[in-house]
Amino acid sequence: MTTRIAPGVKGGIGTSVLRPDGEPKVTGNFAYASDLSSEGMLWSATLRSPHAHARLLKIDIGPAVAMDGVRAVLTQDDVPGEPLFGQEEQDQPVLCDGVARYWGEPVAVVAAEDEETARRAAAAIVVEWEPLAPFVDPDKAAEEGSTFRELKVRRGDETATGSVVVEGFYETATQDQAPLGPEAGFAIPDGEGGLDLYVTSQWIHVDHRQIIACLDMEPDQIRCHPAGIGGAFGSREDISLHIHVAMLSLATGRPVKMVYDRSESFVGHVKRHPSRMWYRHEADEDGKLVKVTARLILDGGAYAHTSRAVIANAAFFAVGPYNCDNVVVDAVAVKTNNPPAGAMRGFGAVQTCFGSEMQMDRLAEALDMDPLELRRRNALAAGDPLATSGQIIAGSLPTLAVIDTLEAMPLPDDTIEDDPRLLPGGTGLTTPVSSVVRGVGYAVNVKNLAFSEAFDDFSEARAVMTTAGVEIHTAAMEVGQGLVTVCQQIARTILGTDQVAVVWDDTSQIGSAGSTSASRQTQMTGGAVHAASVGLRDKILESFGGDELREDGVYLHDELVATIDQVCVGGPVGHHVQFRHPETFQPDENGQGDVHAGFVVSAHRAVVDVDPELGLVRVVQVDTVQDVGKALNPQAIVGQLEGGILQGVGLAVMEQLVVDEGVIRNPTFTDYLIPTFVDAPAVNTRVIEEGDHFGPFGAKGIGESPTISATPAVVAAIRAATGRDLTRVPVLPEDIIGI
Amino acid sequence: MNVTITVNGEERVVDVAGHESLLNVLRNDLDLPGTKDACEQGECGSCTVIFDGESVCSCLVMAADADGSTVTTVEGLSVDTELHPVQEAMLAEGAVQCGFCTPGFVVSGSHLLETNPHPTEPEIREALSGNICRCTGYGAILRAFETVTGEGS
Ligand code: FES
Ligand code: FES
């Protein structure tokens, strides 16, 4: 594939062009899924289980059906096709199938003429439950083999020992993605027994596969369309209301709208797996890692969702971006009656990065060595084997450069201002400036790019030259990250025109783009757009014997030989591709093999102010160096880094779903705390550009990397400030005070 | 019951139920979905409107209490194709990702600048701390407001 690029084109790669959906978003004219409506539309509501574990003895929908304005009340008996759905494993009933396995599991759905009636009708359904003891202890689940996946990594010599040994037990809480846009869906019957579905999603093709199976329909009868999405972060990778809203629309023959409110959103999507991790690190006197042993338990909750992939990431990135020849990891994703867990930004790698980076700091302390020096001595580089799987790192992996560049970034000056807005606890609390201590902490992480373990990972795209400009067709989901801009930039750079529009196709118009997750769309759909654009350009140049494509036509030796009108005289000219990343393989029984397509590394330094008496923390500054491969849109990169870091800071100091016997106690924005403007640290960013071995122009995906080591960097800083041995996130005031 | 609200300069009469919020009426009855609904508890600011000169969470205002009021929503801030300076700046600085928080920031931010045309960084942060953004980490939003007030680059 040639990589000639059009040099002078406006808005190509490497520039911070404005996003095309920006203007409708600032004016309020962008249509999110929750904004859709039509004449004759019905509203809908969901009845949910009030128990984390219970037998459904009897359900009487009569009182709901009898209400004025109610048009349909559906239960599991009304599911026309497969009763179970699931992305990796079909194990979850569309509606409760006789046993509720988690708190808030959908039991019945209602469609009615207005929102209030739908809600009241759902509440009018009478259900007789026999509550059962919820099974919520992850350790017990692991012991008893109640698991979604157990993964063993054995590399090198299990009997190897190091002279310096540190051990620790670490925990991470359940974090919610809490995207600002709620789950929303709109289904419109097509009058021929099928329907068009607009639902917040990260991957419409994988939704489609599950929806048609449960509805017992032919693929072309249901068309899933991209809809306007208010953030995702993993929460939309699995089905939520999709099948429900489709069933109601088919049952009534009317358009149906379903929107979750915030509390329902908290129970309605999968969240970050809470984890329990035991680690032992052994090193020699020089700080070289000799052996890492880890036992990891991640709680997947009631249904499988993406637990298999999450536990694999936890296991394979359990050692972090470091060389170590001897590794023993036992990782298990357990099945309980806790809220179902799935993917959230950095899935799996977030949990083990916290554990392993805390261990690296402890090791540095035991060795009396600078924590960055310890990391430098063990830094993983391209050409090295990944400590866990033994896979030789292909592509770039500038771990050392990331660490060195971070260390060279300036620290804030150490005066602590006597402004209550800038002190730990803010204006509402009473920290005196004299009590504040400052701490600085570091952490580094590595993660895989795109899908691993022999998954057939691809993205389709079509580039079409028309007289009005180029159209890029894809079904990749734009969730806010800015993929739309990157696709335009890639196409402009190759096709020599700034007139590029991205057209979001539905599932009947184009094949899958894969998921908007796993940091994969810049490389995968970006790669597809790159390949489709190159194919289109070469096709046009060949037809007209040209050597360059420009805005106005085909050129040969700087002379115009065909205008765009002439190129399109027979209609638009298109080129369609399916782009795949390098092949990956299943790990063997010892977790060994070429499991991953590529890798990305980044590092964070956090500066915190702490009031050790009140246990209050203010994260003052976070600095980061990010491996990006190639910076396609510098401004969008900063946006990903700042946004990703704040989610990592959230997990470090405030975000946790409180789950008690399977029941979520804080499913509201009042009680589940998300960092606000006053909680957000100043962020300074640097990027390292070393081209990767696949993807457009060497670019890497960076959606997740910024979140991963932000958390341990903040905790390391709090520990540096207080001397407290912190082993759980979020770090709460009582952890700092030590009560 | 019928209430009369002047929305974005236009007098609108709408039949509201006793339990309905102003947010609901704007989105569902007055066809102004630009104002967003992300929590209905006054915690996220995505529903911010200017209500009789004050910046409020429209999810916390009962529609019945809005009778006779004047409301400006995000749709009322840009005139024809001319964007409000806050909208311009948020676009230019990359302060818009998913954009679900954006209408709220545009409305609260325009109100901030009216009441305090040259806010300092802590003032910007504090004034906008009732608006949650889950995507940007607030850095680009801060830079956007600093550009509008002439403090930024
Ligand atoms: S919707 Fe009103 S504050 Fe969140
Ligand atoms: S841009 Fe997504 S919530 Fe702010």
Would you give an account of this structure?
Chain A is of the alpha+beta class and 739 residues long. Chain A folds into three domains: 22-30 and 458-580, Aldehyde Oxidoreductase, domain 4 (2-Layer Sandwich), CATH 3.30.365; 33-133 and 177-268, Alpha-Beta Complex (Aldehyde Oxidoreductase, domain 3); 275-452 and 588-737, Aldehyde Oxidoreductase, domain 4 (2-Layer Sandwich), CATH 3.30.365.10. In chain A, a hairpin with a 2-residue loop joins strand 25 and strand 26. Chain A has 18 helices and 33 strands. In chain B, strands 2-1-5-3-4 form a five-stranded mixed sheet, sandwiched between helices. Chains A and B meet through helix 1 and helix 15 of A and helix 2, helix 3, helix 4 and helix 5 of B. One FE2/S2 (inorganic) cluster (FES) sits between chains B (96-101, 133-136) and A (180, 231, 480).
CATH top level assignment of the largest domain in chain B: Alpha Beta
How many DSSP-defined strands of chain A? Answer: 33
Distance between the termini of chain A: 62 Å
**In percent, how helical is the residue content of chain A?**
25-40%
CATH architecture of the largest domain in chain B: Roll
Global morphology of chain A: globular
Give the overall shape of chain B.
globular
Spatial order of strands in the largest sheet of chain B = 2-1-5-3-4
User: Could you give the order of strands across the largest sheet of chain A?
Assistant: 3-7-1-14-11-12-13
